[in-house]
């Protein structure tokens, strides 16, 4: 019995000591920062084909396309920011399919300077209304991401959404963004959103508050 009790205590102790490890995205983990932009770029080139999507003072947005089994796939876009000491590090990212970068501008929320990134997507997919049969549709969305610059995560709000079937909008949504303390509100009529075009109306920003350096001017 003593032996059994000892084994139970050991097992419980091991369970208590277990930790959940959440890894960064592979490219962020491999090329999260560098002393110079050349250092970052050399690292990114080892990950895949690099395309400069946008360039602003002290900010660069790059797309990475990787190849596996002779097939190319998009590995996402990554926002790199130049810090006060001249080094560069990731300040935002987005990954998805069939997307286009529409805009990247400096943006300030609660006295913290970051960036607003606009992305458009067009995806072919199938939907089912009865749970048995499916129909091919086109999903068109426009998403606005708010990147605080201190991590790769960005708050994501959908402002445009259309599900197109045979050339006509089956479901649709148009949103207007408004800000509250720590939140962005995605305001709009969701009654025609159907099964897909019904984004959440409150998006947690996660931006630091209080005085902080403003983003670089254009």
Write a structural description:
The protein is mainly beta and 218 residues long. It contains 3 helices and 13 strands; from the N terminus they run ααβαββββββββββββ. The strands form 3 sheets. A 5-stranded antiparallel beta sheet has the order 1-5-4-3-2, with helices on one face. The chain has a 5-stranded antiparallel beta sheet with strand order 6-7-8-9-10, with no helix packed on it. A 3-stranded antiparallel beta sheet has the order 11-12-13, with no helix packed on it. The chain is globular. The N terminus and C terminus are likely disordered.
Provide a brief overview of the structure.
The protein has 218 residues and is mainly β. It has 3 helices and 13 strands, in the order H-H-E-H-E-E-E-E-E-E-E-E-E-E-E-E.
């Amino acid at each position: 019995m003593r032996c059994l009790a000892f084994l139970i205590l050991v097992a419980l102790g091991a369970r208590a000591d277990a930790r959940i490890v959440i890894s960064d995205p592979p490219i962020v983990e491999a090329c999260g920062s560098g002393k110079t932009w050349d250092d970052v770029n050399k690292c990114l080139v080892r990950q895949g084909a690099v395309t400069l999507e946008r360039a602003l003072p002290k900010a660069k947005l790059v797309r990475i396309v990787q190849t596996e089994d002779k097939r190319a796939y998009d590995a996402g876009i990554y926002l790199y920011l130049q810090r006060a000491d001249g080094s560069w590090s990731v300040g935002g990212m987005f990954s998805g399919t069939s997307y286009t970068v529409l805009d990247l501008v400096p943006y300030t929320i609660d006295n913290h300077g970051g960036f607003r990134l606009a992305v458009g997507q067009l995806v072919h997919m199938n939907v089912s209304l009865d749970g048995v049969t499916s129909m091919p549709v086109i999903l068109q969305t426009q998403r606005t991401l708010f990147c605080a610059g201190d991590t790769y995560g960005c708050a994501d709000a959908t402002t445009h959404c259309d599900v197109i079937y045979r050339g006509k909008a089956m479901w649709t949504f148009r949103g207007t963004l408004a800000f509250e303390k720590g939140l962005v509100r995605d305001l709009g009529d969701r009654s025609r959103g159907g099964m897909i075009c019904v984004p959440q109306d409150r998006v947690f920003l996660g931006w630091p508050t209080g005085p902080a350096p403003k983003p670089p001017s254009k």
